[in-house]
Amino acid sequence: MQHRAALSNMAAALPGRCGFFLEKKKRFCKMIVSRGRRFCGEHATMEEGSSRRIVCPLDPKHTVSEDKLDKHLKKCNSREKPRPQVYYVENINSGPADGDDTLQQVSLSEQSRTQLESLLDKLKTAVTGLQCDVEDRVLSHSALQEELNNPKNGDSAHKHLKQQSSILGHLEALGLLGRGRCFVEFGAGRGKLSHWIHEALKTRDDPETQDHLESLDDLQLLLVERCSTRFKVDGKHQDVGVEFERLQVDIQHLDLSKVPLLTQKKLPLVGVGKHLCGAATDLALRCLLETPGLRQETGPPRKRLKTSEPAGPESAVPAELPGPGPHPDPRLHPGPVQGLAVALCCHHRCEWRHYVGQKFFLQRGLGAEEFSAFCRMSSWATCGLRPTSQDPPPRDPTSQRGDDEEHEPAEETDAVNGFLSAAEREQVGRLCKRLIDGGRIHFLQTRGFDSRLSRYVNSRVTPENVLLTAVPSSSLSSC
Fold first, then answer.
1. pTM: predicted TM-score of the whole model, two decimal places
2. How many other C-beta atoms lie within 10 A of the C-beta of residue 180?
3. How far apart are CA 159 and CA 143, in angstroms?
């Protein structure tokens, strides 16, 4: 009886659906057709009098009518995008090209037990005496309270809202959340973090801010994202006096000193990011602190001063840092870097060339080879408790941010399973993350910033729950 029903279903296409029969699937195509048409776009060649469809020369995954090829090539999503001519500088934030980036990658599964034990000994020696503890500091901000209490938000939306609320809470606690600043969101995606920063500053009633505001034209939000993103929220903000700008460029090639928005009013810069995957965190730190022409504050955040008073010369000192290319005209400098708050994740996607803590590693007798191994082992912190029989195969990491919060492991190894329990693997993974982040804190301290690591949300919200924050400081704490 079921066989007869299946045969009857194959006898005709569904109403409003394509009439092309898929021999391999033994059914009709289910694509919706245009009014008055019998076949969908992919099978339009079956239509009498229709033009021949050919494979798109830019992307073989789709086809196009031959007579409309020229028009299609101008708007195809796979067409080569023109490079920005102003702020695009090839590999400006990549780090030194010293040849270590060509190091042969050896997977942990190919390491012998002796080699793995040697790596673990080096790891334990390197973290001994490291004063970079991660403190529990879950904060929130009132601007998101209504959305957090909204029952229409599902579990996924609620999870992201909790993280955004805590990041804003940390910004406020550090004195970084206020007007008279330009917030640079790295790996912006849809721009939700910038959206909530804007909402918090739009609704807050800060007498100190209101004193010096003759207009609202003192808030800038610069969103940096290398991919074309759908459903962006920054385009919905049309407030007078608030400037939103989106740059579609890889952080690796972004010269902030050449972004026109930043050189117009020279507002202090605050770097933010929610889950900058792996090397993207290092690229963002280099972008903020090693870009020629950028300055950084050496005093406390401006919020602690009256903004009606002009900043003294001691509040901003030009960064004497080497960088590619000539130094730009000082009159075109952006404002000083006032601080940052970046949620870290996917340490197994870090790369030695981009890593800002190379000097930190070398001081501990470690190099590119150990760094590569520790990056792979860092994934055990978020997958160490999973039974080995359920371990997924390795994936090729390519994105700069963890949009779906799926922080997949780099790999697992039977050799490790032979002498380390799941709990021990998790502890080793956490030590690897701590060591890698210790190098980032060391980098920030050498640039005149006081930095800390905080668990900003519960691990049930996301396993990657560590926030890196930094503000200028005249007295550096040792790490």
1. 0.73
2. 19
3. 16
